[in-house]
């Protein structure tokens, strides 16, 4: 028979048992926060996919208070942070509010919020210009450098603007599964996104921007559904043509080929999560960067 514990030992045993119980309780709360956040996310996704459902008519505040640990005070603070008014229903949220709410719920569910933004849009809308602005002014955002089989234009630097590779090297990259996506763009050259730098940057918690074409955007959506797809629009069609001709980097035949592709791309704009009009480069860049997740705490 083991000896009965003496009073100080009794205290130590009781304290150890209390600590274990507290740890279990904390783990249970954490699990239920994650589970309820996942459920809330499912409700929100249903509301956004099907606007005439009960889910869509739920108030955002009701959705959030379904998550344990979120009382009215924290919810009020969170609504301010997310820039959502108290009366808003889930189905009535604007695109940016949806992105922010989705990121918040994904994080609370224990997942990774969207840190990858794909910027696409018709030729000469200014994707490269906006991306270059982001590279210079938001150095913490990794701008992916694509591989391409096209030849460098004047001023383009290998490894900075593109990796200019031969057809054989591009074939090798595909065979080695080194590309997250690739496509033949404007029916001429191949372009692809090298996968290892993206994985490394996301793994390190960095924000990543891909500037790619419509086909590539669709492939990324399939591979990484959490990515945010942004479609850059020109103020008008005439301005798009002006920018293409004004850039002066393509001959007339290539310009008309690109404008044909542009019509197809513009017709697909509703597939994208967010549309940004490129009137002013710095403003468009700011709008794109703001879509990339930064932690939100209530
Ligand atoms: N907001 C803007 N206002 C006026 N001109 C702009 C604006 N943004 C870009 N441009 C100009 O439009 C032209 C095309 O821009 P850019 O080369 O960045 O387009 P792109 O979308 O990357 O084209 P592509 O898909 O063909 O590579 C450039 O001459 C650029 O200086
Ligand atoms: N699918 C991909 N498209 C890409 C990639 N990198 C660039 N692009 C797109 O190609 C066109 C043409 O570019 P340009 O530099 O020759 O004018 C443009 O629309 C880019 O967005 C890529 O890795 N994958």
Automatic annotation (TrEMBL):
**GO CC entries:** cytosol
- Record InterPro entries: GK/Ca_channel_bsu (IPR008145), Guanylate_kin-like_dom (IPR008144), Guanylate_kinase (IPR017665), Guanylate_kinase_CS (IPR020590), IHF-like_H2TH (IPR055201), IHF_actinobact (IPR047806), P-loop_NTPase (IPR027417)
- Catalysed transformations (reactions): GMP + ATP = GDP + ADP
What name does UniProt use for this protein? Guanylate kinase
| Organism for this UniProt entry | Conyzicola nivalis
Its biological purpose: Essential for recycling GMP and indirectly, cGMP.
Which residues of this UniProt protein bind ATP? 121-128
Give the superkingdom in one word: Bacteria
Q: Where in the cell is it found?
A: Cytoplasm
State the family it belongs to: Belongs to the guanylate kinase family.
What Enzyme Commission number(s) apply to this enzyme? 2.7.4.8
Q: Mind listing the GO molecular function terms for this protein?
A: ATP binding; GMP kinase activity
Query: What PROSITE patterns does the database record attribute to this sequence?
Result: GUANYLATE_KINASE_1 (PS00856), GUANYLATE_KINASE_2 (PS50052)
Q: What is its main location?
A: cytoplasm
Keywords in UniProt for this one? Answer: ATP-binding, Cytoplasm, Kinase, Nucleotide-binding, Transferase
Q: Where is the Guanylate kinase-like domain?
A: 114-293
